[in-house]
Amino acid sequence: MSSHVVFGAGLIGSYLGASMHQLGFKVALVCRASVKSKLAQGVTLTDYQEHYAQAQELNFLDSEVLLKLKPEQIACDYLWLTVKCHGVEQALLDIAPLVSKRTVILCCQNGLGSEAPVKRAYPNNTVLRVMVPFNVVELEKGHLHRGSQGDLTIEQANKADLSEKLVSSLNSDLLPVALSKDMQSLLWAKLQLNLGNSINALADIPVKSMLQQRGYRVVIATMMQELLAVSKELGLELPKVTSVPANVVPYVLKLPNFLFKLVANKMLAVDPNVRTSMWWDMSQNKPTEIQYLNGAVANEGARVGVPTPANNRIVALVEALSEAKSSNRVGGKQPKIALTRPVSASQLQRLIRQD
Ligand SMILES: NC(=O)C1=CN([C@@H]2O[C@H](COP(=O)(O)OP(=O)(O)OC[C@H]3O[C@@H](n4cnc5c(N)ncnc54)[C@H](OP(=O)(O)O)[C@@H]3O)[C@@H](O)[C@H]2O)C=CC1
Ligand SMILES: CC(C)(CO)C(=O)C(=O)O
């Protein structure tokens, strides 16, 4: 039986690892001590379609133990890297004992570019990108809930049967899995949706409440239009990852509230408690993935000569507010901005309209 390790089990990694465990996979999780103490009591998995499973007696690998071992003792067949984008560089140092030349590394980050350092560190391994479309929340200690739709999508490997086998063995009710032959376009399509993460973090409200307010939707739509202009310049054709095509999404978002409610009932079909991963980061005073999301659009835009002023301003605001928060810590820098979190829709609209 193939062996799997989920490295950096937080929300996504724990959901993935526990799903694999209850399917009978040989899987071990590497996580922080606080996460382990919760998961070790057993995990309840549920989703928005009311699927349910229990995963008991998960296997864990301790980071300290790992460092004392060599790949010939502990290397796995599949390593799922589920740390945040900014955790990848450190993780690359820590995963060394888990990787031998047969190990396939699966990068499960949002945004663009986090697989690049992995490929540089392991040029002879198969490194595949994975797109995670759904949201995972911890409803209570050890209860992980998939709050929205979509298939976890794995990049097609050069050896096609490798990813095909993986997809068919994993695909299940709680963890729908699919394969993609055009991962770059798919990741841009997912990135389009993730541009709203920053607004969700700044607004400091659940995704559903944010989408019910046109002011927030207009800001998200403006950033999406910039992304669509950049991706067009790059010659990408974005696949449909919502009920409407990628280039129609901004128009739907800009509709008045009463029309939006009628047209976008699928977009609003998210659990009322869903918040984006950036909301969790900001709320826990952790670094955000802003540079890999809106920052990636801004960087690519600058590279191909497409202006992205709204994304630039939102990146600056998220960074300033993260800085302002860390200034509350002893020895932190002083805040440089007037806006404070929660930021209202009208404040954000004024910010992105500035000339
Ligand atoms: N949450 C969601 O619903 C979704 C998330 N995503 C994406 O999936 C990726 C993972 O997100 P998510 O699961 O939310 O992130 P989490 O922060 O919940 O999980 C990552 C976990 O890895 C731990 N970690 C980081 N570095 C190491 C290390 N070197 N050794 C051991 N543990 C480590 C972190 O601990 P610590 O925080 O202490 O560093 C954290 O517990 C992100 O790119 C995110 O954007 C995509 C879709 C939905
Ligand atoms: C699923 C989605 C789009 C929103 O929760 C997400 O990717 C995230 O939270 O980072």
Description:
This protein is of the alpha/beta class. It folds into two domains: 3-181, Rossmann fold (3-Layer(aba) Sandwich); 185-353, N-(1-d-carboxylethyl)-l-norvaline Dehydrogenase, domain 2 (Orthogonal Bundle). It has helices at residues 11-22, 33-39, 63-67, 71-74, 88-94, 116-121, 160-170, 183-203, 207-211, 214-233, 249-253, 257-263, 277-283, 294-304, 309-327, 345-353, and strands at 3-7, 26-30, 43-47, 52-55, 59-60, 78-81, 104-107, 127-131, 136-140, 143-146, 152-155, 177-180. An eight-stranded mixed sheet has the order 5-2-1-6-7-8-11-12, with helices on both faces. A four-stranded mixed sheet has the order 4-3-10-9, covered by helices on one side. Helix 8 (183-203) crosses helix 13 and helix 10 (214-233) crosses helix 14 (294-304). The protein starts with a strand and ends with a helix. The relative contact order is 0.11. The mean pLDDT is 94. Ketopantoate binds next to helix 8. It catalyses: (R)-pantoate + NADP(+) = 2-dehydropantoate + NADPH + H(+).
Class by helix and strand content? alpha/beta
Helix and strand pattern:
EHEHEEEHHEHEHEEEEHEHHHHHHHHH
Shape: globular
Mean pLDDT: 94
Kindly estimate the percentage of residues that lie in beta strands according to DSSP. Answer: 5-15%
Biggest β-sheet: strands ordered side by side in the sheet: 5-2-1-6-7-8-11-12
Domain module tally: 2
GO molecular function, one term: 2-dehydropantoate 2-reductase activity
Organism: Paraglaciecola polaris LMG 21857
EC number: 1.1.1.169
Family: Belongs to the ketopantoate reductase family.
